[in-house]
C-alpha cells in the first residue's frame, strides 16, 4: 500500500477528509487506495483525500507549473483527490483542513504568524490563521481563494432526477467548475432548498464537458446599506455526491449572489456550519473553521 500506516481524519464545516503528510515523496496514493480510505463502510470515510507534500513531488504537475508554484512562495502543496479517486483542481474547505494540519506539524505558523501560501492545482492560495471567530467557530482561517470567472447569469437549466421542476443556473469558475441556482427567485420551480434530494446527481444543460459541482441557494436576508446578506446553500459535488459543505461552491455562490443582488459580503449557512464569503471585483475570500478529529492507525 502506497499510503502511510498512520493518517488523520479531519473536516472543515463537515466537509470531511483523510489527510496525511508526505514530505519525502513516499506515499502518492492510487485511485483504488483513495476509494478504499474514503469509503464510509469499508474504509475510514471522507469526501476526499488530502496529501500534504511539496509541489515537485506531485506527479501530474509539469516542470513549469512546479516552478511557478515555488516562485509564488508555495513550499507545500495540497494534493487533493475526490472520494472516487479522481484528481481535483481545488477544495476550499480542504485548504483550511490542510493549513490546520500543517500548523500542528510545525510546517505553518499559528495566529499572528506568517500566512501559509499553499499550492493547489488551481494555483497558490494564501491562508491567514485567525483563531476563534464568531459565527464561524474554532481554528478559523481566512483564505484568499483568488480570481473568479462568471458566465452569463442563469444561462443553464438545472433539474434533479425524480424531482419536479427546474431552476436556472449560473456558471462560475473558481479553479474548478460550478453551476449555481438560486431557489425562490421567482424563476425556479424546484422545491425549497431544504427539501431537495441531492443524493442523486443534478442534470445541467447545456452539458459541461468537465462536469461540475451544483449549488442550490436560498437568499435569507439582504441589507444594501451594510452591503451584507445571508443565505443558505446545499451542494452536490462532482465525484462525491452531496457534501455538508463546499468551499469553492460557497465562493461560487457568493459570486452569483453578487451578480443578482449587488451585495459583496455574505454569511452563508451550509449543513456543516456557517462561513463568511467576501467578493471583490476580482477575488473571493472565504472564512471558516477546520477540525482535526483524530489519528487512525491502518492495519
UniProtKB/TrEMBL annotation:
InterPro entries assigned: DAP_epimerase_AS, DAP_epimerase_DapF
EC top class, as a word: isomerase
Active site location: 91, 246
A GO cellular component entry from the record: cytosol
Subcellular location: Cytoplasm
Keyword Isomerase: yes
PROSITE patterns according to UniProt: DAP_EPIMERASE
Pfam families, A to Z: DAP_epimerase
Residue numbers binding substrate: 15, 82, 92-93, 176, 213, 237-238, 247-248
Keywords: Amino-acid biosynthesis, Cytoplasm, Isomerase, Lysine biosynthesis
GO biological process: one example: lysine biosynthetic process via diaminopimelate
Keyword Signal attributed: no
Main location class: cytoplasm
One MF annotation (Gene Ontology) recorded for this entry: diaminopimelate epimerase activity
Site positions per UniProt: Could be important to modulate the pK values of the two catalytic cysteine residues: 178, 237
UniProt-listed Enzyme Commission number(s): 5.1.1.7
Reactions catalysed: (2S,6S)-2,6-diaminopimelate = meso-2,6-diaminopimelate
Pathway note: Amino-acid biosynthesis; L-lysine biosynthesis via DAP pathway; DL-2,6-diaminopimelate from LL-2,6-diaminopimelate: step 1/1
Role, per record: Catalyzes the stereoinversion of LL-2,6-diaminopimelate (L,L-DAP) to meso-diaminopimelate (meso-DAP), a precursor of L-lysine and an essential component of the bacterial peptidoglycan.
Complex formation: Homodimer.
Family, similarity comment: Belongs to the diaminopimelate epimerase family.
Official protein name in the record: Diaminopimelate epimerase
Gene name tied to this protein: dapF
Amino acid at each position: 500500500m502506497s499510503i502511510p500506516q498512520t493518517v488523520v481524519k479531519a473536516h472543515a464545516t463537515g466537509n470531511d477528509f483523510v489527510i496525511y503528510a508526505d514530505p519525502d515523496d513516499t506515499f502518492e496514493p492510487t485511485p483504488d487506495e483513495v476509494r478504499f480510505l474514503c469509503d464510509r463502510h469499508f474504509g475510514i470515510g471522507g469526501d476526499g483525500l488530502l496529501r500534504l507534500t511539496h509541489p515537485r513531488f506531485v506527479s501530474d504537475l509539469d516542470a513549469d507549473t512546479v516552478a511557478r508554484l515555488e516562485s509564488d512562495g508555495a513550499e507545500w502543496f495540497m494534493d487533493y483527490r475526490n472520494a472516487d479517486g479522481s484528481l481535483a483542481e481545488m477544495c476550499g474547505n480542504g485548504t483550511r483542513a490542510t493549513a490546520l494540519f500543517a500548523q500542528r506539524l510545525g510546517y505553518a505558523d499559528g495566529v499572528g504568524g506568517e500566512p501559509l501560501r499553499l499550492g493547489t492545482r488551481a494555483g497558490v492560495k494564501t491562508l491567514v490563521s485567525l483563531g476563534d471567530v464568531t459565527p464561524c467557530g474554532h481554528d478559523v482561517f481566512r483564505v484568499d481563494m483568488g480570481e473568479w470567472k462568471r458566465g452569463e447569469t442563469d444561462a443553464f437549466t438545472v433539474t434533479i432526477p425524480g424531482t419536479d421542476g427546474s431552476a436556472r443556473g449560473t456558471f462560475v469558475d473558481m479553479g474548478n467548475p460550478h453551476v449555481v441556482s438560486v431557489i425562490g427567485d421567482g424563476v425556479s420551480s424546484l422545491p425549497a432548498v431544504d427539501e431537495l434530494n441531492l443524493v442523486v446527481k443534478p442534470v445541467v444543460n447545456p452539458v459541461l464537458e468537465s462536469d461540475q459541482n451544483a449549488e442550490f441557494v436560498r437568499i435569507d436576508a439582504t441589507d444594501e446599506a451594510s452591503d451584507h446578506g445571508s443565505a443558505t446553500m446545499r451542494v452536490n459535488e462532482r465525484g462525491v455526491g452531496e457534501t455538508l459543505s463546499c468551499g469553492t461552491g460557497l465562493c461560487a455562490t457568493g459570486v452569483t449572489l453578487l451578480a443578482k443582488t449587488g451585495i459583496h459580503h455574505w454569511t452563508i449557512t451550509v449543513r456543516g456550519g456557517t462561513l463568511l464569503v467576501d467578493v471583490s471585483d476580482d477575488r473571493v475570500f472565504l472564512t471558516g473553521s477546520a477540525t482535526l478529529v483524530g489519528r487512525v492507525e491502518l492495519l
